[in-house]
């Protein structure tokens, strides 16, 4: 009954549109990856992916994490004018910070002696994606704050459509250079399409009253948390490239991890629709308890079905990408088991920690996980290859999820038991 009510509430907040948009986004991301591997030689694609994974963990830190401050603190504001004023502030400050970060990355990329040829050049160009991606993220967040989840969904759909079309056309004609270009221009064009729909007065110069040290601190820790979280996903790629010195192994691991990581769209989809709502009701212990119980029941069921399917069909699934990937089916299934720890625990409790203003706990947990990741992979990758990286990642997905749950329950009781 709780699960049924949970899903119904999700649908009432235009969750159906969010689901469709997220599904289309995942599908088109899959297609973009498939097109890339068809048109770009594995060696060159591996180098591009190596460079992109460096950018991937920096993307959430563009704007110093102010987009995360926008959604949490924006949810506390009552009027549309206040929320629009806050958006204008975040846009201007975040854009300047993003430009600075891009400049630093480009200088680093052109000076650092990478193992693979052209890595620095690809990294320098891919750094440009930080700017349009930041703008697109705050546009989506503003729609969520306005309870316009349909428009939020349309941003996702249009960006995904542009991405898959540009990857198809540009990768076919220009190979890896076309792929890099597609990744940059898709969010840029999407942002131009939607920013006018927000009706923001950018000339408004009064500093929002909600801006204080805690606003910047929250954004900073959100950025750090997102960086270390993404690093947990990409550090395997980086260490495989470093320890095995084989760009084709980098490509193989990237592709066997696509489906396990793509299933994470499910918790993100629910959180995208629900974060503003449960943040507004965070002090209501009964509401949070029911929400948590319903969420965990739903995603435990999803995890069982997901792992059951790939226990039997791992090889057939990898064969859709490339026959050469079938030999990595064990690593694929290990990663599939690992993501269940995120589905059941971390996707929920990591966001609940953010909702109560304890985003730094996520940062500390994930930072510890990174240390474990590096130590473990330096031992396991030389022995077991990419299976060693899969084992480490799977363990850490459960480790971070369970510890997030423990910390949230402790802090929540401490903060609200007397209310």
TrEMBL record:
GO cellular component entries: plasma membrane
Keyword Transmembrane helix belongs to the record: yes
Keyword Cytoplasm: no
UniProt entry keywords in alphabetical sequence: Cell membrane, Membrane, Transmembrane, Transmembrane helix
Compartment(s) where it occurs, according to its Swiss-Prot or TrEMBL record: Cell membrane
Matching InterPro entries: Poly_Biosynth_Transport, Polysacc_synth
Entry superkingdom: Bacteria
TM stretches of this protein: 18-37, 49-73, 94-114, 120-139, 151-173, 179-198, 218-240, 252-273, 294-312, 332-349, 361-381, 393-412
Topology term for the membrane: Multi-pass membrane protein
PANTHER family noted in UniProt: O-ANTIGEN TRANSPORTER-RELATED, PST FAMILY PREDICTED COLANIC ACID TRANSPORTER
Listed name of the protein: Oligosaccharide flippase family protein
Native species: Polaribacter pectinis
């Amino acid at each position: 009954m709780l699960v049924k009510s949970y899903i119904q509430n999700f649908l009432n907040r235009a969750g159906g549109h969010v689901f469709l948009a997220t599904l289309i986004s995942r599908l088109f991301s899959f297609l973009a990856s498939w097109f890339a591997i068809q048109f770009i030689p594995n060696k060159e694609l591996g180098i591009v992916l190596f460079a992109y994974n460096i950018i991937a963990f920096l993307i959430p830190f563009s704007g110093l994490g102010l987009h995360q401050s926008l959604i949490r603190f924006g949810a506390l504001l009552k009027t549309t004018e206040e929320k629009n004023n806050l958006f204008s502030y975040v846009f201007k400050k975040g854009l300047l910070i993003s430009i600075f970060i891009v400049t630093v990355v480009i200088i680093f990329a052109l000076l650092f002696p990478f193992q693979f040829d052209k890595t620095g050049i690809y990294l320098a160009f891919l750094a440009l994606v930080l700017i349009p991606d930041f703008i697109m993220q705050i546009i989506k967040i503003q729609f969520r704050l306005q309870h316009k989840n349909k428009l939020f969904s349309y941003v996702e759909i249009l960006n995904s459509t542009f991405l898959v079309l540009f990857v198809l056309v540009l990768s076919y004609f220009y190979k890896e250079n076309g792929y890099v270009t597609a990744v940059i221009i898709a969010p840029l064009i999407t942002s131009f399409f939607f920013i006018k729909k927000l009706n923001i007065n950018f000339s408004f110069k009064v500093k929002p009253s909600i801006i204080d040290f805690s606003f910047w601190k929250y954004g900073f820790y959100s950025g750090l948390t997102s960086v270390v979280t993404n690093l947990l996903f990409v550090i395997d790629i980086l260490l495989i490239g470093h320890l095995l010195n084989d760009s084709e192994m980098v490509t193989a691991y990237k592709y066997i991890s696509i489906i396990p990581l793509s299933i994470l769209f499910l918790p993100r989809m629910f959180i995208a629709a629900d974060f503003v709502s449960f943040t507004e009701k965070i002090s209501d212990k009964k509401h949070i308890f029911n929400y948590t119980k319903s969420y965990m029941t739903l995603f435990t069921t999803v995890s069982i079905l997901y792992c059951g399917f790939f226990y039997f069909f791992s090889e057939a699934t990898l064969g859709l990408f490339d026959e050469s990937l079938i030999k990595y089916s064990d690593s694929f299934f290990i990663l599939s088991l690992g993501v269940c720890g995120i589905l059941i625990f971390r996707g929920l409790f990591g966001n609940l920690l953010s909702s109560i203003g304890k985003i730094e706990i996520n940062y500390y947990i994930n930072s510890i996980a990174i240390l474990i990741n590096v130590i473990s992979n330096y031992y396991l990758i030389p022995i077991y290859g990419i299976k060693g990286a899969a084992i480490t990642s799977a363990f850490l997905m459960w480790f971070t999820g369970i510890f997030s749950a423990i910390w949230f329950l402790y802090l929540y009781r401490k903060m609200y038991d007397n209310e």
